[in-house]
């Protein structure tokens, strides 16, 4: 993956004073003073302050990380304050930036084999992984699947989601926007690397694959 999440994070933090009237340090203090402690409560509170879901999730993760940047290595909270004082760079908000994915060229048969190999990583949850891909096919006509590393990417024609199969739970990465406020979580790393998208759904039950799941997929695909 060539997406530089550290740079996007710095750009987001640098834009806070101009966009919101508060720098990162002030938002960290405001979150602490809000009285909210649970992740979802903090995100909901931030959304009422005008942040989009993915931005609110990002701030909540930084707060949970002691005010330190998530992708900025060992930078301290003081360092993040200095970043917030740098001139703003004109960039799109993080949630609107699709990842750059190098999809290797291959035959349709080889592509299917790669996808099936990764689905096998789900072991006991393989039927659920099959169901997820089936429902994504229903939600996004013409979607294609590609195996890249440990992830199954969904393309229509650009990547809009990625599935990480595993025995205990499946992670479906994407950008779900306001549609995901109830079910999406800030994305976990993938094998210690940055996630392909900033949000994820955690799936471990076929009952998760409902009409709301269809709406989330359409939102990620911008349909």
Supply database-style keywords.
Aspartate Aminotransferase, domain 1, alpha+beta, 41% helix, elongated, 6 strands, 6-stranded antiparallel beta sheet, 223 residues
The biggest beta sheet is recorded as: 6 strands, antiparallel
CATH-defined topology of the largest domain:
Aspartate Aminotransferase, domain 1
Neighbour order of strands in the largest sheet: 1-2-3-4-6-5
Strand content: 5-15%
Structural class: alpha+beta
Helix content: 40-55%
Q: Cα distance, first to last residue? A: 25 Å
Counting H and I runs of at least 4 residues, what is the number of helices?
8
Question: Concise description?
Answer:
The chain has 223 residues and is of the alpha+beta class. It has helices spanning 5-20, 24-33, 39-48, 53-64, 77-84, 108-119, 126-139, 211-220, and strands at residues 144-148, 151-155, 159-164, 170-174, 185-186, 199-203. It has a 6-stranded antiparallel beta sheet.
